[in-house]
Structure formats: structure tokens, C-alpha cells
Amino acid sequence: MRYKNHTYHILDNSPWPIFMAFSLMLSMKSAVLFMHGFNGGSSTLLIGFLLVLLTFFCWFVDVSKESTLSGCHTYLVQRGLKIGFILFIVSELMFFVALFWAFFHSSLAPSVDLGVVWPPKGIQALNPLSVPLLNTIVLVASGVVLTWGHHAIITANKPHTTVSLLITIILAMSFTGLQFLEYIDSTFSIADSVYGSTFFMCTGFHGIHIIIGTIYLITCLYRTVYGLNTNSSHVGFDTCAWYYHFVDIVWIFMFISVYYWPYSPTLN
Amino acid sequence: MSDRPETVLQTPQFDARFPNVNQTKNCWQNFVDFHRCANARGEDFPVCVQFKKTFTSLCPIEWVDRWTDQVENGVFPTKLD
Amino acid sequence: MMNLDIAYPLQYGFQDPATPVMQGIISLHDHIFFYLIVTTVFVTWILSVIIFEFKDEFFSHKYIRHGTLIEIIWTVTPAFILISIAFPSFRLLYLMDEVIDPAVTIKVVGHQWYWSYEYSDHAWSIEFDSYMLPTSDLELGQFRLLEVDNRMVVPMDTHVRLIITSSDVIHSWAVPSLGIKLDAIPGRLNQTSMIINREGVFFGQCSEICGVQHGFMPIVVESVKMDNYISWVNNMLDEA
Lengths: 268, 81, 240
Hints:
The complex is a heterotrimer.
Chain A: H1 16-35, H2 41-68, H3 75-108, H4 131-154, H5 158-185, H6 193-225, H7 235-260
Chain B: H1 24-41, H2 46-58, H3 61-72
Helix pairs in contact in B: 1-2
Chain C: H1 20-53, H2 68-97, E1 104-111, E2 114-119, E3 126-130, E4 152-155, E5 160-166, E6 171-175, E7 180-184, E8 190-194, E9 200-205, E10 218-224, H3 226-239
Parallel strand pairs in C: 1-5, 4-10
Antiparallel strand pairs in C: 1-2, 2-3, 5-8, 6-7, 9-10
Helix pairs in contact in C: 1-2
């Protein structure tokens, strides 16, 4: 390795950024083709999406190598990575602000076409005290278990870390499964007025984030089992926990404002 | 035409409940009020006539036709009694 | 006397105002332009001085880091300029919003791609569509892409309330001489008012891109004396 007299990490040349750019462009363009019903739009979209995933995988493998094998991730570099991830979460927060904005814009002063009531007439809102409450409990529990895992990893307790991550992943998957069943059972669709649109945009994007968080947790579990996370160096675990807790908090707000607040048992 | 009443300039005046550029609720509220009034006192009651004049002046004809259809078919989303 | 109620080629100024609101807009424009010219000349002068006076001694002020007095001056002065621009602006904005004592309500509905007008203050509604006249149908002296088959007729010197909406996509009802440009939004009724202070024919165009024929749905407002307006209304009521 080249000699360096500083603690910064000067990156080697990498094909992944440009590869990612092209994969994303392919995904976006084929998504447009797909949505407009062009021939082959769906298969091109699939290829683009798989290429994005492949690039992600290769890129992260490289980062993992730089961290574990080359020792490039000094404390200073770790700090930079964490600040970067916090900025990413802030941008995610603004994304959800936009979705909540759409929801409150439509629900706080419902338009006259909906009869100035929310939920609109004919929409049978889901009972928040049924599956959504269970989902809240499942998510909060998974957050608690993940914190247990965090404590385990800084006290270098590998069995506890592994088990807690496993439980978190199972709870996260239960959440996705319950949401899936709830979607199947719901009597309204994304096309049923602005209620359906905002409901499925909000909960759907939250669900996608939970799925991404689950994949992230699985990656963390893998890296823990193979000893790539240590008690002193586990940036991947930290950021994963932040991300998962963030998605958790978003759900709490979503449960309160999208499920609980508009629901009235007498209207249904 | 002989059955046409003499044309006078008369239009709904400023309503302090709706001080903004957006007058959607002004039109809608008068439509709802007219039907509630008509159900309670009959269409020819003076107050009801006033409600009707107001929403007729403010609401696009297309909207009034659509809402009236909904009222007749019992699918108007708001209670009118 | 001829009034400029229509755009001419390469125009960069306003059309002649026909409402107090448009007169207000032109006054505000002139007011702001005064500050704009003063600021532009001053800043250009300062920049020129810096460039030409100090072109051979780049580092003569290398150790100046701050100067409280000059910083206060260049913060407070622009603040005062902004305030003196903002106040007349807000005054005009809130005057434009006033619809206190209207005598006539006219509903304007945008469609792809024509306007329709509804007068519903009377025993029954007057309702008509206003399509652009195709170039082949124009007579000498008529304006290409601006004339319509049915004009919107309004009484002069009268407070008219406009309710503007759309039946499909967003349009925008705009007539420069009247100082009105208001979006027509489906599912929403936007209200504005006008008092046209002279007779005339005023031309405008849809001002929110609304599809392929966005440029071919002009607006024509014909302002007439009150007697003529009443007889026009009577004719329309009889025809309806």
C-alpha cells in the first residue's frame, strides 16, 4: 500500500459511480416506457433494476474491502461516513414530509367533490386498532430488539448480536407480511379518490423503506456472523440502526395521522 | 318573451365566511344550505330562495347539475336533513 | 383617441390600462423601476471603481477583515429599499383581492381548448362558449389568433365579480389591459373582480400551458355602457 501521512481516505478509481449512473438512467427511462405500455418496457425495467442492485452489491463489497482488508476507515473517515448517512436520512425525512404534506393538504380541508368529509363517502377506512396497532407493536418491538443488538455489539457479545439481529429481521418481515395482508383485505385501491392515493403512497413508500431496512439488517447479520463488524468498528451497523429507527418513527407518525386520526367507528 | 322578469343587477354580496380568492366552499355551502332549508321549510321559503340564488350565481352549471343528480340518486356525500 | 388594447410586434411595454388595478400595476412597476435603476447604476459604479482603481494593486486591502460601519450601511440600506418596494406591492396585492360590492357575477370556465361564460344572476342562466375565429374566417381589420365568435360582454364602470374555474386541466384567464391573470383550476373556484373604466374590446390569451391548442383559445372582453349591457342580457335571456 502507498505511504500516506494523513488519516483521510483517498479513493481508488472505481467503475461503480458511472455504472450506477447508467443503471439508474436505464431504470428511469424503462420505467417511463413501462408506464406508457411500450413493448418490452417491463423487461427493460427489470434489467435496469437488477443492474442497480448488482452495482450496489459490487460497490458495497468494495467499501467492505477498503474497511476490513485495507484499513482505510480511520476514525476520521468513519465520522465522515456517519455525517454522510445522517444527511441521507435528513433527505429521506424531507421525502416523507412531502408525502405527509400531500396527505394533510387533502385531509385537513377535504375538497367539495369528496363532500368535505374525510375519509370520503364510500371509503371504508381500516380499523387502526386492529392490524395497524399490531404492526405498531411489532415495529416498536423490533426497534427495542435492535437496540439490544447495539448494546451487544459494543460489549463484543457476538451470540447476543446475532440473535437480536435475527429477531429484528423476523419482526421486520412480519410487519411487511401483515401490511401485505392488510393491502389485500382493504376495500379501496390507490385509484379510489385522493384518500386511496395518499394512503397507498404514504404506507406503500413506508413499506418499501421497511423492506430496504430488512435487506440492510440481513447484510448486517451476515457481516456480524463473518466477523466484519467489531465492537470498535461497526459503522454499517450504526447507520443500519439509524435508518431502521427512522423508518420506525415515520411509522408512528403515519399510524397516528393516516390511520388513527381520520378513523371514526360510526362512519364505517 | 313576455314571461321574462325585468332584468335587474343583483348578485351575491361579500360573505365574511369566505374572504379569500378561493370561493369553492362558498358555492358548496350555499348548495348544501339550500337543500337543508328546502327539506325543512320547502323550496319557496324566502331564506331558501336566497340560498338558491347565491349558489346559482356562484357555482358552475356543470357542478350544480352533477350535485343535483347525486342528491336525487341519494349519493350526495353530505347529510341534507 | 386610440387606446392600446392589444399587443403589437416586438412590444416591450404595457398595454393601456382599462381598470384601476392595471393602473396600480403600472404605477408599482414604475415605482420599482426607480429603485432598480438607482441600484444598478450604483452597483455598476462601485464595481467599475474596484476594477479600474485597484487593477494594479490586488492585495492593497489584504488585511481588512471587517468594518462595522460599512457592514451596517450595506445591510440597512438594502433593507430600507426592500421595505419601500414591499409596502406598495402589498397594498396593491390586497386591493386586488377586494370583492366587497359586486353588481354582476360572471363565471368563466376553461376547457380544452376554449372558454365558456355563464351569467346566472337572472331568472335563468346565460351560457355560451367562446371559440377562436379561424384565420380563414377573419375579415379585414380583425386580429389573427385573437378574435372569438362570442365575446364576453360586461358593463363599464361596474364592479364585476369573476368566478374562474376549469372543467379539465389548469388554464389561466388573462387580459393584460384589465390587469387580470388568474389560474382556472378544476374543482376550485377562484374569485377576482374588475371595474372597467371605459368602453372597448380587450384581448387576452390562455396563460397556463394546457395542451396542444393552448395558444388558440383567446379571450375577448367587450366593455359596453350599462343600457347596452342590459339589452344584451335581455336578448340573451330571450334566446336561451
